[in-house]
Amino acid sequence: MVKVYRSTVLDTPADRVWRDLRDFNGIANWHPSILSSRIENGQPGDKVGCVRNFQLKDGARVREKLLALSDYDYTCTSAILDSPLGLSDYISSLRLFPVTEGNRCFIEWSAEFDCPLEKVAELSETVGNGLFQTGLDALKKSYGKR
After folding, report:
1. pLDDT for 145
2. Which residue of 16, 35, 101, 105 has the fewest CB atoms within a 10 Å radius of its CB?
3. How far apart (Å, rounded) are the C-alpha atoms in residues 70 and 72?
4. Counted domains in the chain
């Protein structure tokens, strides 16, 4: 099992950031690698069990299922159903923690998945930096302007 983890601190309160991140379908609004996203079957973007189908800017499509969403814990957990990446059993969690000093928040994004041994380094880089760090950097830049 491969584990990937990235984190940062945003200079914005957790409840403010969570208003944007809790919408499972809203990822295209803040992640620069994602061109578009839609929730299948017309379900709301905060319903556990809904499936988002999103297109990356390189044209690839990914389908993810929302496994858990907690407004109390500021956390969202999802699983990839279909992806061109060549990984399996992918479970990802995005979580915010309030930082009382300066009214900021700590955000962490992690995933566990399986893949062929020869792909571990490549997929760890793709998920960790290409997906997670790119998204966290975009959030940091976005909330720095508010």
Report:
1. 57
2. 101
3. 5
4. 1
Mean predicted confidence (pLDDT) in 76-81? 98
Question: How far is CA 99 from its chain centroid?
Answer: 20
CATH number for 118: 3.30.530.20
Query: Would you state the structure tokens that stand for residue 4, as one six-digit string?
Result: 């990937």
The answer to whether the CB of 73 falls within 8 A of the CB of 22 is: no
Q: Which domain holds residue 99?
A: 2-144
The tokens of 127 are what? 């998920």
pLDDT reading at 50 higher than 90: yes
- Reported as a single tens digit per residue, the pLDDT across 16-33 is 999 999 999 999 999 999
99: which strand partners?
Answer: 104
